[in-house]
Write a structure and sequence with these properties.
TIM Barrel, M1 Pyruvate Kinase, Domain 3, Pyruvate Kinase, Chain: A, domain 1, 3 domains, seven-stranded antiparallel β-sheet, 15 helices
Length: 479
């Protein structure tokens, strides 16, 4: 059985060569993440082009996700600086220092929201400051937990409600580059509410781009509004790095499970991210805790697991992908054998026809031992609703554009196939079987369940379930 959980890998200096990109694709990468917090425009565009070329050479459908910088505060330093407990530190409220030793931030306007006694955490919480006073173009803070502050390290403000816009000027520049590169997904950092979805889509439209948008859940206020955010966005990411700094660390595992469950109930993809195999930046094997972490996310029902520094700057990028693939395959085999996750009884169908139909198709496939569920889909929605029931059968989504097919590379259990042109009045179900056969997604003799909302090209919405046996040439025969 093929792996169902998808693998997202951040590409960077460690995976820049065409040969290395081909290797990680063969090892199991489904989606490339481009981190727009680092690097120049031409670097990003060149990486996307090389990844597309590598995917074509490997013969694999793979997507590209642009991860916007967002209002992520980073300290602009040219050299490391020692922070001593009890010392006073000043931050400039603008991009220029008021005094020579002021610290400058990427988004200094955010500091206007900080109030005395609120925590200021640097370098993922390794260094801790406490805000003291605001005035004369500066924010003064006292060092509580000191250490070495290195250039470009992040600043978190867990006690400070932020008022900055969802889309920053840096994000708009990044979106222009993403549009030029032709990405398939846009991920938005530090989302605080569902209204951010409209802002992001408008910003994408302004640069001529229409792609699904993903909300990174990194702030406590996003967790409290998770249901509305999931409903508004096309997908979410459980960004555990900043979550673990912005809220008590012990809450992160249960928040992860809650967010994954909410996304799955809504039929929206969810990525679990941050430090999954972090030790593999410098070691060829992960720790046992890291292997358990990946498996636990898969048991939770995540659509995808993500590698960050492991594949962007690590010493063993191919090994990291290979290891994640093996963990996913082993975990899924146990899930399937134990019947832990299945279609029957997992959901309470909602009002309307979509839930009962997709659930019935999954149950039917299980009862007759179908090899695949094949669905022609104009947007990918039907396929996403099917896989949230986690059927045992492979789900093949036959979609009309490359962009939709690549976008589905992020979604658990879906094999995307490009739809061939059909004439008005054609049988879309039979055509979908032919397309699935053409790329090897179904084999002759296989029993297949077909599901379509519009069974006739150009016809009305008549949800249809059909069972066929694939013929020698991909034709649909009697079961």
């Amino acid at each position: 059985m093929p792996r169902r959980t998808k693998i997202v890998a951040t590409i960077g200096p460690a995976t820049d060569s065409l040969e290395r990109l081909e290797a990680i694709l063969r090892a199991g990468v489904d989606v490339a993440r481009i981190n727009f917090s680092h690097g120049a425009a031409e670097e990003h565009i060149a990486r996307v082009l090389r990844f597309r070329e590598a995917a074509e050479r490997v013969g694999k459908v793979a997507g590209v996700m642009a991860d916007l910088p967002g209002p992520k505060l980073r300290v602009k330093l040219t050299a490391a600086r020692e922070l001593i407990p009890g010392d006073s530190v000043t931050f400039s409220l603008s991009h220029e220092p008021c005094h020579c030793d002021d610290l400058i931030l990427t988004e200094p306007e955010i500091l206007a929201d900080v109030r005395p006694c609120q925590r200021m955490l640097l370098d993922d919480g390794r260094l801790q400051l406490e805000a003291a006073s605001l005035g004369s173009g500066q924010l003064k803070a006292t060092v509580v937990v000191g250490g070495t502050l290195k250039p470009n390290k992040g600043l978190n403000l867990p006690d400070t409600p932020l008022t900055i816009a969802t889309i920053t000027p840096r994000d708009r520049v990044a979106l222009e580059i993403a549009a030029r590169a032709g990405v398939d997904w846009v991920a938005v950092s530090f989302v605080r509410g569902p209204e951010a979805a409209d802002d992001v889509r408008a910003a994408c439209a302004a640069v001529g781009m229409k792609v699904p948008v993903l909300a990174k859940i990194e702030r406590p206020e996003a967790v409290s509004r998770a249901v509305a955010i999931v409903a508004a966005f096309d997908a979410i990411m459980v960004a555990r790095g900043d979550l673990g700094v912005e809220m008590p660390l012990e809450r992160v595992p249960t928040v992860q499970k809650m967010l994954i469950a909410e996304a799955r109930l809504a039929g929206k993809p969810v990525i679990t991210a941050t430090d999954m195999l972090d030790s593999m930046r410098e070691n060829p094997r992960p720790t046992r805790a890291e292997a358990s972490d990946v498996a636990n996310a898969i048991f939770d029902g995540t659509d995808a697991v993500m590698l960050s520094g492991e594949t962007a700057v690590g010493m063993y990028p191919v090994e990291a992908v290979t290891c994640m693939h093996r963990i996913a395959v082993e975990t899924e085999a146990h899930i399937h054998a134990a019947g832990i996750v299945g279609a029957a009884g997992y959901f309470h169908p909602e009002a309307g026809i979509d839930d009962p139909i997709t659930l019935a198709a999954c149950n039917l496939a299980r009862e007759i031992g179908a090899a695949a569920i094949v669905t022609p889909t104009l947007s990918g929605r039907t396929a996403r609703l099917i896989v949230r029931h986690r059927p045992g059968a492979q789900v093949v989504a036959v979609a009309p554009t490359d962009a939709i097919v690549r976008g589905l590379a992020l979604v658990w259990g879906i094999a995307g196939v490009r739809m061939s042109p059909t004439a008005p009045g054609a049988d879309r179900l039979a055509a979908a079987v032919q397309d699935a056969y053409r790329v090897g997604a179904v084999a002759p003799g296989a029993l297949v369940v077909l599901l379509a909302g519009h069974p006739i090209e150009g016809g009305p919405h008549f949800p249809t379930v059909r069972v066929v046996r694939v013929g020698p040439g991909g034709e649909s025969g009697e079961p």
